Amino acid sequence: MSADRVVLVTGGNRGIGRAIAERFVRDGYRVAVTARSGEGPEGTLTVRADVTDAVAVDAAFTEVEQKLGPIEILVANAGITKDTLLMRMSEDDFDSVVSTNLGGTFRVVKRASKGMLRARFGRVILISSVVGLLGSAGQVNYAASKSALVGFARSLTRELGARGITTNVVAPGFIETDMTAELPEETQKQYKASIPAGRFATADEVAGVVTWLASDDAAYISGAVIPVDGGLGMGH
Fold first, then answer.
1. Catalytic residue among 29, 142, 191, 220, which?
2. pLDDT tens digits, 117-151
3. Which of 9, 13, 172, 205 could serve as 201's disulfide partner, Cβ 3.0–4.6 Å?
4. Which residues of 105-114 are buried (b: 16+ CB within 10 A; e: fewer)?
5. In this predicted model, what pLDDT tens digit does every residue of 12-39 receive, in sequence order?
């Protein structure tokens, strides 16, 4: 039964990551989440890890493997933003975002791939953003880190595709999360006007696409970028 598989969602204590973890629990998977602070949703195992620290990542994986079994499905979701215009962006603003969003993905995928190769099965799902392909003023660091996940996924597909391992990218648009709720109302209105669907997505709409990619129905899909953005990024 595919639904009994072990899933790890990084950054699964809030926002999209939390919704993804909840959806996997609901579908009967065994689910662990990494979090720097806070807890994952009910029914998940929460392990402490900062994805910028390879030693912490290894320890977190080891804990999940001991308590739940080898990780068969990895959702690399942990990410941060440090938005500011390029001229004001510090070295740290750039480096910390790239190290978390892109470097963090590298660290967790590398660690997960060992078990997937042994099992000759794996689902790697990278959470990108519409901004990675559409661009966004004030987000040079974030957009660069998120567009890089496309090249990452496609290269990994060429490396591991013959071993029963798929790697795909989900690119959400604007989602109803704490992050978007903090935007001024006028800004939210402007964003909604540019989205053909005329609304933000729910986090669960993203989670549904992620769980589908993890399922047997998506076994022949790899290296794909699936937008969940209401049509905002069309043509990319």
1. 142
2. 999 999 999 999 999 999 999 999 999 999 999 99
3. 205
4. bbbbbebbbe
5. 999 999 999 999 999 999 999 999 999 9
